[in-house]
User: Which sequence fits this backbone?
């Protein structure tokens, strides 16, 4: 029997995926640094391609957050994080010299992977409770963020880019630790603070819909 809710979720994800990829490609036009754009925007194409190819259907709630994450990455890739205009407006409003846009990026970088892992654990019935799935999401988000920080460092070294250009440290020596803290907070908000919304979205699936 075909699960119509599952099919609907897959269609909605694919519609958002097409828009995200199109915007990602358009963001290359006039990008501040094409090499940095390629590295920063690549997760949008990679994740979209993998999820699409696997035929997995994220819940509508998760699909929308994945789309938000894609938009944050696309904007950061186009301008480079230290030069995103919206971030500079916030910095000016707060009387700061540091553009905080990358903090938003890492907050979302923790929130969305944590939601993905939580949903996967619940739908595959790997764990028995939503609380266990939530902690699984936290652990995954922490590991993902740590790995991404190492990747950013290696990429910056390989491309001979300064930390301020690619890593967007903006002269802050504790930037990596602050990024990981933001990601952890984002993950916690995602798996606990947004739990009721996520649960309602998951409720659209039939009990045996594990795809």
Assistant:
């Amino acid at each position: 029997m075909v699960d119509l809710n599952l099919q609907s979720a897959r269609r909605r994800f694919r519609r958002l995926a097409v828009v995200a990829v199109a915007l990602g490609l358009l963001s290359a036009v006039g990008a501040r640094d094409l090499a940095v754009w390629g590295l920063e925007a690549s997760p949008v194409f990679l994740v979209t391609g993998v999820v699409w190819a696997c035929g997995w259907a994220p819940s509508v709630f998760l699909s929308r957050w994945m789309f938000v994450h894609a938009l944050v990455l696309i904007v950061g890739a186009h301008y480079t994080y230290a030069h995103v205009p919206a971030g500079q407006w916030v910095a000016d409003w707060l009387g700061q010299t540091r553009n905080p846009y990358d903090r938003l990026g890492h907050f979302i970088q923790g929130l969305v992977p944590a939601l993905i892992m939580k949903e996967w654990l619940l739908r595959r019935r790997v764990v028995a409770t939503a609380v266990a799935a939530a902690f699984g999401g936290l652990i995954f988000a922490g590991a993902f963020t740590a790995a991404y920080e190492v990747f950013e460092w290696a990429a910056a070294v390989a491309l001979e880019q300064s930390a301020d250009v690619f890593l967007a440290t903006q002269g802050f020596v504790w930037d990596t630790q602050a990024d990981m803290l933001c990601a952890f907070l984002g993950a916690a908000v995602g798996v606990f603070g947004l739990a009721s919304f996520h649960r309602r979205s998951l409720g659209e699936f039939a009990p045996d819909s594990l795809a």
Summary: DSSP finds nine helices and no strands in the chain.
